[in-house]
């Protein structure tokens, strides 16, 4: 019985620390960073996905919601907010006369380029508490955990 209790306590400790770390990273590091640029994390994801695609920095709404694994309705709301801010525009899709593309505006490209630099520095600062080998070990362990949960484990963020 004592062995079982210790095992349960270890599980609870690991899960608690995992949740606490994820919440703290979002609350204390990611959300404030994105807020400095006037956006929320999900909006950063859309802009970064468009930027990663390369010139002309445009994708269909379907490609965006597939890439970010979200609903079409949720993506539409995000695109609406980004368009209102002047960071993306909807334009006709030359490959499909009925469809549209979501494209970065020049202001959106400048914004995401600046935000990505700050985000990479923020990630470095978050992980500075761990050595390079500890970071590699953590990445392997989290990948294994995600695989056990049926996730790909290859996410960026």
Description:
With 157 residues, the protein is mainly alpha-helical. The chain has one domain: Winged helix-like DNA-binding domain superfamily/Winged helix DNA-binding domain (Arc Repressor Mutant, subunit A). Helices cover 68% and strands 11% of the residues. The protein contains six helices and three strands. It has a three-stranded antiparallel β-sheet with strand order 1-3-2. A hairpin with a 2-residue loop joins strand 2 and strand 3. Helix 2 crosses helix 5. The longest helix has 35 residues. The radius of gyration is 19 Å and the shape is elongated. It comes from Burkholderia ubonensis. Pfam families: MarR_2. This is MarR family transcriptional regulator.
List keywords for this structure.
157 residues, mainly alpha, three-stranded antiparallel sheet, 3 strands
Topology:
Blueprint: H1 2-36, H2 41-52, E1 58-59, H3 61-67, H4 72-84, E2 88-93, E3 96-104, H5 106-127, H6 132-148
Antiparallel strand pairs: 1-3, 2-3
Helix pairs in contact: 1-5, 2-5, 3-4
Strand content: 5-15%
Structural class by sheet pairing and helices: mainly alpha
Largest sheet: 3 strands, antiparallel
Give the overall shape. Answer: elongated
What distance lies between the first and last C-alpha atoms, to the nearest angstrom?
41 Å
Task: Please write the CATH class name.
Answer: Mainly Alpha
Number of domains: 1
**Fourth-level CATH superfamily:** Winged helix-like DNA-binding domain superfamily/Winged helix DNA-binding domain
Helix content: 55-70%
Q: How many helix segments?
A: 6
Please state the CA-atom Rg, rounded to the nearest Å.
Answer: 19 Å
Low-confidence stretches: none
Secondary-structure element string: HHEHHEEHH
Count of distinct strands? 3
Protein name: MarR family transcriptional regulator
Domain HTH marR-type: 11-147
Organism: Burkholderia ubonensis
Pfam families: MarR_2
């Amino acid at each position: 019985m004592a062995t079982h209790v210790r095992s349960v306590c270890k599980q609870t400790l690991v899960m608690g620390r995992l949740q606490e770390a994820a919440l703290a990273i979002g609350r204390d590091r990611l959300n404030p960073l994105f807020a400095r640029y006037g956006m929320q994390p999900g909006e950063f994801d859309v802009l970064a996905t468009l930027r990663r695609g390369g010139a002309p920095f445009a994708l269909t709404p379907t490609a965006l919601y597939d890439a970010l694994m979200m609903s079409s309705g949720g993506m539409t709301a995000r695109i609406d907010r980004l368009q209102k801010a002047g960071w993306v525009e909807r334009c006709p899709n030359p490959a499909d006369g009925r469809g549209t593309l979501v494209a970065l505006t020049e202001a959106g490209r400048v914004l995401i380029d600046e935000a990505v630099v700050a985000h990479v520095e923020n990630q470095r600062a978050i992980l500075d508490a761990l050595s390079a080998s500890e970071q590699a070990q953590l990445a392997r362990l989290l990948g294994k955990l995600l695989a056990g949960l049926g996730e790909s484990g290859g996410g960026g963020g």
